[in-house]
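New to this. Comment on this protein:
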Amino acid sequence: MPAHITRILTLLLAFLLLPHPASAQPVTPTTAWQVYGAPSAHSFDPAVPGAATITVQPPARRAEPWSSGAGIRIPGAIAAGERVTAAFWARAARPLRLTASLQGGAPDYAAFASAPLSLTPNWQLVTVSGVAPAAFAADSQSLSLQLGHADAEVSLGPVAFVRGPVDRAALTRRFAEYRPSSIAIDLRIPSEPDVTLAATLHLPAGRGPFPLAVMLQGHGPNGRGCFVPLVDRLTGQGIAALEYDKRGIAGSTGTYVEDVARLTADAAAAVAAMRARRDIDPARIALIGHSQGGVVAPALAAADPHIAAIVTLGGSVGDGFPYLHRAILGQMVHAGIPEAAAAPAADAAIALLQARADKASPATIAALRSAAIDRFQAAGFPRPQAEGALAMIDTPEAWAANGLRSASDLAALRIPVLAVFGEKDPLVVATTEAPAARQALSANPRARVVVLSGLSHWFQEGIVTGNGEEVAKLGPNLGSPRLVTLVGDWLKTVMAEGKRGG
């Protein structure tokens, strides 16, 4: 080949390998708005592309502009001199003027673009565009709307970010083709007595009626958002998911109380509300319960023959004070206390709780408390720790534990059951709980018990000790890909069988 041809081809190849600016096309639209400082609700509105919207309530009285608002991250890094345009759908309950900005985060929140918006009750596509004055790290910049001065309800739809010149025709096509992977709808579910549960129903893309998983949370003042990885997995495979705030928590009314009977009644109310919806298949409603929710799920399923399946994640298995004795003993042994020393302490704690349940005299209670503290000291606890350990056990919730029937509830089931435990769980110890689950479910050919190695009560990867202080460092609760895959695959199969059976 002649030298000059070789040189031309070499230069051409070098040119082709040079980095070039991204084409001026919008990324896939998203509806991942984050609202702060104001009540908001997800809803379904077919008048806007994708039909997934979020509505933000105005402040009760005029406040600082930044006191409430909505934002969404600009994906990826931004080069110096690069033009970025945010195009999004919005409306207001009545004519309203706002400002949209492209800006950074704390501490200065410096904006590199802003635009006035004139919203009306009709959906409209609005834009804000600017040129980056400097290079910005990935995901460091956001589209932001300050709503502290808004005196009307504002609804927001999907957003698309465009790099470089805007191709209006391409932008229009992207929005017209936009189909979110799921649509969230906020609901109010009535329960007794005179309680309203704030709930979010996550519907998959496509047409229903859909199978549904009702998510039941663990012990504590928990609200929505505890099952994000599982919800994403389920909706991605065509299964709707419902989560709700516990009574007295966040958006739910009533008084917060950790009462299994009351929590089971709330779960039953949620199931009843879902059976009445046209977009949910009433014959394919499953329950997924974590920790305490893993006790509520079998209790509800034992009472409701129309529940299709249940999944328990770190759910206790046992009946009454004998179970609680086993759990206390298991935790002490798990913590490294020899069983010979731990057993008398567990015996003394249960004797105290039995006396509480029997409404024994104050003198009897005092004597049993003193004896229990002595036994915990003998097991190796310094007296202040012995008193603290007993204080954690001697609670009204524990006094009512004699009514616990999770083993009997599981044994009564003939529906598909998946019971999952974490090998390093310090609260629901797998070495005792998994065998108890297998025994309770031994007559159910549709049941499966799984122990996941290296996971604790919160089912996260990277566990070292399994204790609670690790939780905040290891990503979302119930976020282990192994757990998410196990539950997702199992429930997909079960729901498909239920559809064929119907």
